[in-house]
Design brief:
The protein has one domain: Protein Transport Mog1p, Chain A (3-Layer(aba) Sandwich). Helices cover 30% and strands 29% of the residues. The chain contains four helices and seven strands; from the N terminus they run H-H-E-E-E-H-E-E-E-E-H. The protein has helices at 4-22, 40-47, 87-92, 142-156; strands at residues 55-58, 61-68, 79-85, 101-104, 111-117, 121-128, 131-138. Strand 6 and strand 7 (131-138) form a beta hairpin. It is of the alpha+beta class and 160 residues long.
């Protein structure tokens, strides 16, 4: 059974897989392990719930990390995923997949945009110099998630 949401998720994973497998750029120049860029306390503060330690989304790929409350695997639960992206993946993702919408974000990085993909919500992709990353927060209405994503991005860039 195919759905636009599943198609969008598969397309996003396929697009970002090269970045997961070997990204060397980071949000703040701290290496290539996304799980080292935010603490559980920082993420808990953003999400308003206590989260477990960050876990790599793809077990052997350090460029994507997710934080969530213990024992809450539902699609609509509060979680944050940080993905380090290559410049190529950042540019490619500017063209949204069918069913997704894009709008520019101001006040963060050299270039930034939001992609909204129902039912997965909104994600903010940011480029600052050679470093590119994406912040996706779920469990909130899209406008609130976008505001929180921007605050996290600014924190990662040293402005928050």
């Amino acid at each position: 059974m195919d759905s636009p949401g599943l198609t969008a998720l598969v397309a996003t994973v396929a697009l970002l897989a090269p970045a997961w497998a070997g990204a060397s750029a980071s949000a703040g120049g701290h290496g290539d392990d996304a799980c080292t860029l935010l603490t559980s306390a920082q993420v808990s503060s953003v999400l308003g719930v206590r989260v477990q330690a960050g876990q790599h989304v793809v077990p052997d790929a350090r460029s994507s990390c997710g934080w969530a409350a213990a024992g809450d695997p539902s699609l609509g639960s509060r979680r944050l995923v940080l993905t380090l992206m290559s410049g190529r993946a950042f540019e490619s993702a500017k063209t949204p997949v069918r069913g997704a919408s894009k709008h520019l974000a101001s006040g963060v990085g050299d270039d930034a945009y939001y992609i909204t993909t129902p039912p997965f919500g909104t994600a903010l992709s940011v480029r600052k110099g050679e470093n590119c990353f994406q912040v996706r927060i779920s469990g909130f209405p899209d406008a609130q998630a976008a505001h929180l994503e921007k605050a996290v991005a600014q924190k990662l860039l040293g402005r928050g």
